[in-house]
Amino acid sequence: MTRSTQNGVGRVVGRGDRVGAGGPAAAVVALVCCEVLLRARVRAVVSSGRDRGDVPGWVLVTLMTAGLVVGLWAVAGPRLEAMFTQSMDRVLAQL
Known about the structure:
By secondary structure, the protein is mainly alpha-helical. The protein has two domains: about 1-45, no CATH class; about 55-95. The protein has helices spanning about 25-45, 55-95, and strands spanning about 1-5, 10-15. Strands 1-2 form a two-stranded antiparallel ribbon. A hairpin with a 2-residue loop joins strand 1 (about 1-5) and strand 2 (about 10-15). Keywords: Membrane, Transmembrane, Transmembrane helix.
């Protein structure tokens, strides 16, 4: 089993270069190799120090979602409560 790199992407090459060609042991080795490559990539991204998040964007999305929930709750709250109560009454009546 060898490791080749093409366009910066690691690839595990085994006997026959297809899944299942080497049996269960080859599959385990391939999974371990993939895990090692993935861990190395994650470690490289984390250690690079690049900011990969958009905090103001996520805050905006969270606030907008909360606003929609509050708005829908204010408009449909009584109806939702009636539906829930009716459903619970039906379930409890069957017990």
